[in-house]
Amino acid sequence: MSRSGAFCPRCGDPVDPEDHGDRPGDDVDPDSPLCDACYFERFDLVDAPDRVEVRVCSECGAVHRGNRWVDVGAEDYTDVAVEEVAEALGVHVDATDVSWEVAPEQVDGTTIRMHCEFTGVVRGTLLTESVVVPVKIGRETCTRCGRIAGGSYASRVQIRATDRTPTEDERARAREIAESYVADREAAGDRDAFVSEITDRDEGLDVKLSTNKLGQGVAKRVVEQLGGTFTDNETLVTEDGDGNEVYRVTYAVRLPKFRPGEVIDPGDDEGPVLVRSVQGNLKGTRLTTGDDYEASFEDGIAPDARRLGTVDDATETTLVAVEDDHAVQVLDPDTYEAMRVPHPDYLDPDADAVPVVKSRAGLHVVPESGDEDDRPNGA
Fold first, then answer.
1. Rounded Cα distance, 183 and 210, in Å
2. Which of 51, 24, 49, 42 is nearest to 94 (CA)?
3. What region, left, alpha or beta, does residue 97 occupy, with left being phi > 0 and alpha being psi -120 to 50 degrees?
4. What pLDDT does residue 156 have?
5. Average pLDDT over the chain, rounded to whole?
């Protein structure tokens, strides 16, 4: 006879609550008075769905979870299917020491059958239960890929130059800056970050980007690395579902009039300058002396100067003689006549030949290739 006088309401066998961990006065499950045989007869260790559906983007492979798309980086979707099944399964609250194993079976390209075996302890009894859950892989297009396919963009960066067109090197560098910055944002988990389109025009480069924040970031980085300035202009394009105004922003980047590596004449009667940097005020090296040059604050990166040439125009010629600290003689590369030219302090007096630039300002010795490689934004 049961020590408590309790009996199973289904079969009438005596039941001792202490055997089940129950105590008089506890809030217990209505099934707790059942004997083990009747309890396990209606007991399910695992609650499994008839089928699990996984929504996968056919373009980028992202998986839809909850109300958003998530990049999982999976080469196949077996691991994804296992995770989705694990989320969908429910284990009875009375079970302890639960463990499970799963054996995926690839039925076809869109169906994986999950053979799951669970073990757990209930009322001191080790139970084992097996379930099979089909997983259906549904392929569609995520919102991001849909926006890319539709050419959607929120900002445009227009890269131009003052009184000239951007060079091929500047265009390539600007493209690299934009793509690298967006790739970094993507790697950080920003699924809204993408380049919609890059167009190479006669007047410069146009970059369309998915968000206004990206446009601002690209414009800022182009100016930081190539010099110049940028402005922004907003255009109202639509309203969202909540009635909020949606703006498209154009960031107009203006690269400097002069570039590192160019030779200019500031018109101050002190001789040509080799431009080293266009960050902040234009900075360079005076070709007559080798002294540093910096444009005035008012002139900034665009002093009123004439463009004479570039270091790429330099020709190596013979150093004939060093007269003193102020003058040397070199051969004119065109006429081979010995010419008296200024002696900048970077000239090596023991050299047999030196690079020179010939322009309307005369003949000037320029630094050897590599001497100017430490310029902030390069020649």
1. 13
2. 42
3. left
4. 95
5. 83
